[in-house]
Amino acid sequence: MKWSLVIPCYNEEVNVRLMRDTCQDCFRGQVESYELIFVNDGSRDNTWRELKKLLQDSECRIKLVNFSRNFGKEAAMYAGLQQAEGDYVTLIDADLQQRPEVALQMLRILEEQPEADCVAAYQEHRLEGPVLTFFKKCFYRIINRISDVDFYNGASDFRTLRRSVVDAILSMGEYYRFSKGIFSWVGFETVFMPYTPEARNAGNSSWSFRKLFRYAIDGIIAFTTAPLRIATGLGTLMAGLALLYLVIVVIQKLTVGIDIPGYPTLVGLILLIGGIQLITLGIIGEYIGRMYIQEKHRPIYIAKEVVTGQPQKRQEMNK
Ligand code: UDP
Ligand code: MG
Q1: H or E element: which one contains 42?
Q2: From the alpha carbon of 204, which atom of ligand 1 is closest?
Q3: I need a surface site. Which of 82, 112, 302, 306 has the fewest CB within 10 A?
Q4: Same domain? 213 vs 147
Q5: Same domain, yes or no, for 122 and 263?
Q6: How far is the CA of 111 from the centre of ligand 2 (A)?
């Protein structure tokens, strides 16, 4: 098998067939053999039923993975990569925001440039509003400063990987997966390719601001322990200041004496230090919580069934 396309699907009942058709129209006569791997990530609509229908009338090999519940896009991509048999693997969304034509261009780049291992599409112009764009920019600035891994602003999960890269990614069995970090952590030669995402074909994006925020925190915690160092630094600074203050108080007491008891200052300081302690405990807790879950060695996903369908219609080659 030459090429595998991994397509995570969550509530995409109206999109999956169109996605399959668009891929077939686009790759017919262009690629000798390819497979489409749809991962149904616990959709609440009829996505699974729609997917199974594809087994009956496809030109290419179709592989379907059905999760026992929603495990998230990261888990779906991992499952898809595990199933992929191609020498090249593309990760692409089901909602047609990422065009199969662009995926084909990525494949061509890898075929023509033996030194490149991965092609990543990045959005030149973000479709989101200014607020979200601002927050994303801040996130990239922060994470690039505090972690050793480089994160490329605007680069999405829309990528085409050589087999060697896929194997490297699969060797990372961490539970909290943050693909953007994993892609750059494994290294390899990456070509960045600008693209403009289309509007979503149907349905809604499943990313709320809250979900994105949690994902950003996951990313930071998965790829750097800098917040722990910041907590230590803050604690040291506060302790130093407190010590200095005490020395001043003692000297004051011995020389001029203290006449006004500083209640507001006292209460303020107690609240400040208490707050810092709680934040620090929270940061430590985030790491310990993840260690706890990781230590349980739970699987990244649970698949109820995996179905493979061979091509039903002949694929003509006019190359
Ligand atoms: N997706 C998934 N599991 C989830 C959420 C999303 O598999 O829990 C899939 C979704 O079906 C789509 C892709 O991930 O194919 C991107 O999701 P979405 O379009 O909601 O995100 P956006 O394009 O807004 O980043
Ligand atoms: Mg989308």
Answers
A1: none
A2: 20
A3: 112
A4: yes
A5: no
A6: 27
- Ligand 1 atom closest to residue 71's alpha carbon, by position in its atom list: 8
CATH number assigned to the domain comprising residue 219? 3.90.550.10
- The whole-model pTM stands at 0.80
In ligand 1, the atom with minimum distance to the C-alpha of 70 is 8
pLDDT of 224 higher than 70: yes
Same domain, 238 and 210: no
* Tokens linked to 171: 């060797």
Instruction: Tell which atom from ligand 1 comes closest to the C-alpha of 94.
Output: 15
pLDDT for 111-166, tens place per residue? 999 999 999 988 877 767 788 888 888 888 888 888 888 888 778 889 999 999 99
Which of the two residues, 236 and 116, has the higher pLDDT score?
116
For residues 17 and 120, membership in a common domain is answered with: yes
The DSSP call for residue 156 is E
DSSP track, 223-279: H--HHHHHHHHHHHHHHHHHHHHHHHHHHHHHHT---S--HHHHHHHHHHHHHHHHH
Both 25 and 143 in one domain: the answer is: yes
Q: Are residues 233 and 111 in the same domain?
A: no
Give the chain's domain count. 2
Q: Give residue 317's pLDDT.
A: 47
- For residue 9, the ligand closest to its alpha carbon is 1
Average model confidence (pLDDT) for the chain? Answer: 86
- 93 CA to centre of ligand 2 in angstroms: 6
pLDDT of residue 241: 83
Distance 97 CA to ligand 2 centre (A): 6
Q: Which residues lie with the beta carbon below 6 Å from any ligand 1 atom?
A: 8-10, 12, 41, 70, 72-73, 76, 93-95, 97, 205-207
- pLDDT of the residue at 314: 61
Q: 240 and 215, same structural domain? A: no
Q: Is 150 in the same domain as 196?
A: yes
pLDDT greater at residue 259 or residue 88: 88
Which is nearest to 138 in space by CA: 216, 32, 194? Answer: 216
